[in-house]
Every structure is written in structure tokens, then in C-alpha cells.
Hints:
The chain is mainly β. The chain is built from no helices and 8 strands. Strands 1, 2, 3, 4, 5, 6, 7 and 8 form an 8-stranded antiparallel β-sheet that branches. A hairpin with a 6-residue loop joins strand 6 (89-107) and strand 7. The chain starts with 5 loop residues before the first strand and ends with a strand.
Amino acid sequence: MRAIGHLIWAIPEGYIPRESTGPSPEMLSHETACILNTGEDPADVEIYVFFSNREPAGPYHVQVPARRTRHLRFNDLDDPEPIPRGTDYASLLIANVPIVVQHTRLDSRQAANALISTIAFPS
């Protein structure tokens, strides 16, 4: 199968609400990078997180096996540091092979949940 996508992706919008309603982990408020690797080689991905009031965090290291997808919750990133809740941020994903990235947020602060999703910006 042919690899599709780009090596660099930007997600300018990020925010993990502090509160959630409903059962965890399914209804925990979260941000997700859905990463698709259609190629024959594993994708080694570095993630950098940018803030409005401090230097970036990262790199966070993630691997997506060949011909697989990985739905990575930013809530689960903790090395080199956890992503702060209730704080605006943006992220940059840099891969060694072409990947496709989609961004999704579940905001479950209220019982009427909100889910947004969009394709990240490729470069």
C-alpha cells in the first residue's frame, strides 16, 4: 500500500476542559489526535505543544505501526510533562514518514456533550 499524507501537521486549537460528566474513560473531556499511517514503515512522531504564556513542551514521542491508526488522547501525554487542563494550547506533529492527522475534542462539562473534529493543517 502507498503511504499518503505529510510529514508535518499543525493543530492550532487545543483545550482540555478541567471538568467532565458521565462515565470515565469514555466520557472524560479530552483532545485526540487521530493518526493514520498507510505506509509500509512505522511512523515515529514527535509532538510539540505550544502555549500563549510559556515555552513549548515536548517532544512527546509516539509510534504508529505500519498500516495502522492510533487515536492518541492528549490527556494521556505525560512525558516530558502532562498537558495542563483548562489551558489553551496548539500542537505540532512531525513524523519520519507521511501520516494523516485529524483532531477531535470531546467536551463533556455539561450533560449535553459537544464533539468537534477537523483535519489538522498539513505542511
